[in-house]
Amino acid sequence: MSASKVFVARLAGCSVFDPAGDRVGRVRDVLVVYRRADPPRVVGLIVEVPGKRRIFLSIGRVTSIGAGQVITTGIVNMRRFEQRGGEVRVIAEMLGRKVLLTRDRIRATIEDVAIEDRGQGDWEVSQLFLRKPKTTPSPFGKGPTTFATWNEVTEDELPGEAQSAEHVIAAYSDLVPADLASTLLDLPEERRFEVAEELPDDRLADVLEEMPDQERIDILTRLEDARAADVLDQMQPDDAADVLAQFPDDRSEALLQLMEPEEAQDVRMLLEYEPDTAGGLMTTEPVIVSADATVAEGLALIRRHELAPALGASVCVTLPPYEPPTGRFLGLVHFQRMLRYPPNERLGTLIDQQTEPVRVDASAAEVTRVMATYNLVSVPVVDDAHRLVGVVTIDDVLDHVLPDDWRSQGEGESPSRLRQRPRKTPVTTGRRTTRGPNG
After folding, report:
1. By the 8 A CB rule, do 438 and 432 touch?
2. I want to staple 192 with a disulfide (CB 3.0 to 4.6 A). Which of 126, 148, 187, 202 is the partner?
3. DSSP character string of 101-120
């Protein structure tokens, strides 16, 4: 059964199905256009389909909305979504906006938007869920809420006042970093920065790691130095080094001075290497153990939830010290091998004798060949003294060999060019109507 009124924040993330029950994708936003006298009219949904592609689904192709799902006619235009002039995304651009309640002359914040079917598939904004200013001095208190129709409010954004991004972040809280990065890239530039500025440091760091170089540089450039340094502290050292390498020397050095000393030291080391070498691709945070460590200790280290899967696929055995650059590198122990032995078995006896490390100055092509030859998800990197300085993981290699615009490509699209900096997300064009035969 189709609901006649739906709140957009609850619609975000709902699955979209065709008439046969096959899943098409998930709703990421609702697209509306303003009208002179009437409430904004809904023109369609922004749907994320497999391959991280966002497409436009005309509201005329929606047959049912309800029970946490959207049913379509089955005719979907797979052309990549591109926002047109005059179109407004409800979650990305309306939530958090200030409006003036004309009956009370009070400024309130839009926390949610209700859309309603007026018949014949004609949907429009029917109600706004608003938060009034708080009336108590308590720092934990919130203002009262109220509902209002579109005609009972007027937009009241003050010049120079940034639109609150809190509710946008809440609506996208279930997205993994790669999906949230893709969502931010779809936003207008100003809105993208507002949302990024409101994200916690660790969440923003995860998102920036999934963005093309130019876009993450743009965001970090607009942050205050202290905040930018805090975010860089939370990023993987190799990603932080990639970003800082694009800044002017004085800006890069200023941020390094503000970072935590240990994190800055790792980044400085990575900046010494060419970007297309093993040293430029590696991360300096592998799992490192002594030869006397046991299987139980090794499994406990790779069990940590914050450890990336590629880094947890094996542990590096070295002589002391156990921080890069370590003592002499002895070898790798793969986690599957650890699973085959008793907990008290020493890791020094389980070293893979076939996997050789690569030199820090080895080319990216050589690193790729080694990983492909031995079916590795990570390969250790050593210096001239055979000390472990880091590991190159499969995601580092893929990010290097894939084309610049791989994040923006969908299924069936071919690479357009080899990787080079700075990278830009390409823009596609196409025509859209609300009830055309192609949806």
Report:
1. no
2. 187
3. ETTTTEEEEEEEEEEEE-ST
